[in-house]
Amino acid sequence: MNGKQDTILEMSYQDRNLGNEGTQSKEILIEPGGTRDDRDSGGSQRDDGETTDINTDNETEFTDDIDADNTDTDNIEPEMVSDLSSPQDTPPAPVPQPSPPRSSTSSILRCCGLFDRPTWPSLIAFWILGLCNNFGYVVMLSAAHDIIKEHSQADDTPKNERDCNTMSTGAILLADVVPSLCIKMFVAFLPLCIKVRVVAIVILSIMGYVIVAASTIRPLIFVGVACTSLASGLGEASFVAYMSFFRDKGVIGFWSSGTGAAGLAGAMGYAAPTSLGISPPAVLYSMTAVPIIMAFIFTFVLQHPDGPIEREVTQEERPQFLLKEKFSYLPKLFKYMVPIGLVYLFEYLINQGLFELLYYKDTFLTHDEQYRWYQVLYQLGVVISRSSIGLVTINNLSLLAILQGLNLILLFTETIYFFMPHMLLVMLIIVWEGLLGGASYVNTLYKMNIEVVEDKREFAMGVVTLSDSIGITMAGILSIPLHNFICELPKY
Question: Staple 423 to which of 11, 224, 360, 396, CB 3.0 to 4.6 Å?
């Protein structure tokens, strides 16, 4: 090389640590004496375009080799420089492509906190799975009054001015929740074999609809309701735990919204056709399509986490969380479990202990229709609040339990004295009751997904569903004597 001349070598490299797309250009200035100036070494970069000089280990080795051979840049042959800058060794860096602009819908939903990134198939899939999972459970509760009345014996007819059935709808509630409680008590401690569980959920759901629709005796009815309860409980514990494997935490909001929609769709899906004169068995037979839809959505729509599901759910790549550790970890979850358990205790005491007794004669609705539409209004409140996590977040879970307890006291007093001027006021309170119940569910899951450490999150979110089942079971037990006590009172 003739004279003192700077030679610039351009080297492209992938900046993986900063997550930049494409490649960056690295300029190395070789000056006389064997020194180099690193114009861009991947380190810090000033806003005004200047770069910080950083000597890497490779650069030091290169300089040492030149000094050891008493080599100066003046003695570098042109062929060597040509080889070093050859296109074969340093291909030109591709121009980084700009990221596609976000849609306005995506930006709005991100601002609302519904999800971290727009993974629509999984979000929609979890919404439908939530709807299908809770649909049968709600239908059985909506049909409880009709089921009890249709299979009542001659001596079961009401003999008091309150028009009470001798058997409370709390009996149907117990059949609809005790099996769910039992399966939730141990399923959270078992490996999450999600495909096997979904098959069991679908089969149990179909059996529940068919048995209840075809039954002619009370014991068989309770068997069918129990099948539906098992399917719902297994589904909730399984899908809630499975959500912990998804990076997009928006699935929690969509699942909760779907379960709320199941309440409204189930109550409306039963109340509307029966009000039009379709028999309850025919309505139940038609609902066997719901679990089939669940199987289709899980298989063909839901985008499962990367890798085999069985490998994901057996936690081969996660720290081991042993059975003994799970039991010792339970007390830390009580701050989530106790409030939601109380909310469900109070609201199901209202639904199955008091709804049947809130009968107003001077209206266009019959006693049976009033009960059905109370269930619809309650579920309307649930679906609104379970879909609101992106807009409203409630941190004080205990406040929800206190407010629901006040609702119980207010409506219990109404069933005895009927002091409210109109049935519409009671209907508004029932919507408010549903709002509190749905808010408790979705905010509890949301807080747990944020606050519980990742290696314990699957277990925690699966076991917290046990607390609402405990509250509902206690409500079913207490609603029977509560119903009988009020029925024996004179109507004021």
Answer: 360
Cβ neighbours of residue 326 under 8 Å, at least 6 residues apart?
189, 459, 463
Geometric angle at alpha carbon 272, from 268 and 274, rounded to 5° = 120
Residue with tokens 């000597």: 55
- Going by C-beta distance under 8 Å and a sequence separation of 6 or more, which residues neighbour residue 261? 127, 130, 131, 383, 387
CA nearest neighbour of 272 among 151, 169, 369: 369
Nearest-CA neighbor of 145 among 287, 274, 278? Answer: 274
Instruction: Classify 227 as helix, strand or coil.
Output: helix
Q: Write the single-letter amino acid at 197.
A: R
| pTM of this structure | 0.62
Please, which pLDDT band fits residue 90 given cuts at 50, 70 and 90? low
The span from the CA of 281 to the CA of 274, in Å, is 10
Take residue 312 and report the two structure tokens written for it: 């994901």
Tell me the two tokens of residue 309: 């599901």
Q: What is the sign of the dihedral through the CA atoms of 362, 365, 367 and 371?
A: negative
Sheet-wide strand order for 7-13: 7-13, 24-31, 35-38
Alpha-carbon gap, residue 104 to 277, rounded angstroms: 46
C-alpha count within 13 angstroms, C-beta hemisphere, residue 158: 16
